[in-house]
Amino acid sequence: MSFRVLPAGLSAGFPRLSRLLPLGLAIAAALPGTALAANADAGDELDEVVVTATRTAVTTDAALAPVEVIDRDEILRAQATSLADLLRGRAGINLSNQGGDGKLTTMFVRGSESDHVLVLIDGVRVGSATSGLVSFQDLPVALIDRIEIVRGPRSSLYGSEAIGGVIQIFTRRDRGEATFRFNAGAGSHGRREGGIGIGGGSERGWFGLDAGFKQTNGINACRGAGFPIFAGCFVDDQPDRDGYRQHAFSLRGGVNLGESVTLQGHALRVSGENEYDGSFVDNSDIVQQVVGAQLKWQAGERVAVQLAAGSNKDESENFLGSTPSGAFATRRDSASVQSDITLAERQVLTVGLDWLRDRVDSDTVYDDTRRGNRALFAQYQGGFGAQDVQLALRRDDNDQFGGKTTGSVAWGLGFAEHWRITASYGTAFKAPTFNELYFPFFGNPALRPESSKTVDLGLAWRGERSRIAFNAFETRVDDLIAYDGSIFLPNNIEKTRLRGAELQLETVVFGWSVNGAASWLDPENRVRGANEGNDLPRRARETARIDVDRAFGDFSLGLTGVAEGKRYDNLANTRRIDGFATLDLRAEYRFARHWTVQARVANLFDERYETTSFYNQPGRTWSLMLRFQPAD
Length: 632
Known about the structure:
Layout: H1 6-11, H2 20-29, H3 35-39, E1 49-50, E2 58-59, E3 67-70, H4 72-78, H5 83-87, E4 93-97, E5 105-109, E6 117-121, E7 124-126, E8 144-151, H6 155-158, E9 165-171, E10 179-187, E11 191-201, E12 205-219, E13 242-256, E14 261-275, E15 283-298, E16 303-320, E17 323-344, E18 347-362, E19 370-384, E20 387-398, E21 402-415, E22 419-430, H7 434-438, E23 450-462, E24 467-484, E25 489-509, E26 512-525, E27 542-552, E28 555-564, E29 567-568, E30 576-577, E31 580-590, E32 595-602, E33 621-628
Parallel strand pairs: 6-9
Antiparallel strand pairs: 1-2, 3-8, 4-5, 6-7, 8-9, 10-11, 10-33, 11-12, 12-13, 13-14, 14-15, 15-16, 16-17, 17-18, 18-19, 19-20, 20-21, 21-22, 22-23, 23-24, 24-25, 25-26, 26-27, 27-28, 28-31, 29-30, 31-32, 32-33
Pfam families: Plug, TonB_dep_Rec_b-barrel
Protein name: TonB-dependent vitamin B12 receptor
InterPro entries: B12_transptr_BtuB (IPR010101), Beta-barrel_TonB (IPR000531), Beta-barrel_TonB_sf (IPR036942), Plug_dom (IPR012910), Plug_dom_sf (IPR037066), TonB-dep_rcpt-like (IPR039426)
């Protein structure tokens, strides 16, 4: 397996910063015997508890899959203005955006397709059943408590979509005395935002309520191509600002019903108005809604049972000016029962049932508007001295394509006190979307699921306040769905090979907190023909990110640097998107006990770049935020 050297791959497009990011990562990665060790006894443990990788609570140290956690402190410290802003440049992640805030944002995890990542919000599966996409641009970062990112296949636990990985978003959970919170901000391009909330809890129960809004005048989303007409954005010339408005509401609560039973529920609703450039549609009203509940019962010393149910609505009403131009609404209802049985110390068996139903409501008359899926899964996690193993198997029964079996096996070995090696193999699949199956005069109900096989090798070192992790992987995806000119319908005709490596770093160097990531990717199209051997579109081969922060009493400083190499925007690799690098600076000052002011300059050097051809990205921007936060 071979990989390009990161500086050489990036420097041609942006000489000012591309050398600094890999250099910073390389210097920090070379320090485990010196600066890292010097800080290893300074105090804080890095280990956190995660649930997404195994559907059970395990520490990041015990997880046999590559896991990254973004907690509430990091979210606040980063001052990210959107979920895409928070995730860009992280290990294994490529993002593509069509013109700034609120505009279509797609994610490629480890080079897999944009609909090959499963997204959960508080355990509820989300995404459009028609397009297969998750509206990342509409998920409010202000209401997020933490994010768990698991890279690699997880269909053996979750079923469809988990080819590239799983991302679970947790909304806020409050503890302690009930407190009020408030924030208000402003920024470039007429940006205004604000939020209020209250929450608290005790040993008996907890609650939280938050509401927020965000509005921006936006930028001119599409630069157009001039010739040919309608190139790129399906519009010739609309040099206006494309604004975005969002309102968000979140309600959560839980109660302990005795010593062994816990009941909790949550609801998130986001509504918005979006403007963009287009000749057929130029504005939309959107709704994203997630509701769910969980009942947890500790049935005995060795048995825990969990019942969960949830629903996700994804709605869009489209207009050209004020003229209706199509409405699409999908609903995904889900339920599960899961039992975790402790067989012995470090020996856990998990068994469960999942149920899912997708429904479509649209003024486009689909050939079919509902589909059900039922699944049985089992997982074994065992520890034997310095070794850990994980085995998982799942069988899905789907109304459209029938049965599908997926499985995974993972192994880990700790050695030399601070080191650990891991290896895993897993299969995964993605069910066809309703657009591919049932769109009038286009759908093909005979489509099979897209399927994959992945091998992953990892090596990690950790101290008390330092961690380095390296993973290399290869994924082969078969039966990818694409338009087949021989039958004039979509068909299972494509295949890809994805190879890559990821490096992650957490440490403290001379009082500065350093978090870094670098990724190398070879996303090869394996379909026979003129495009065989080409890169898959919109995936940068090299990406890197570094976050550096330090507090000086009530004052803190930080920076984020992101660099991405070139990519292509078509299968023929004739439309190139140049690489770029950006640098963000931020500062924070706590001027009273509960009051904080934050300031940020993003894209300090005003880099002009695109992540999708013909679609502009904001240049240099600024933002200010005032926060009243008694308990955080």
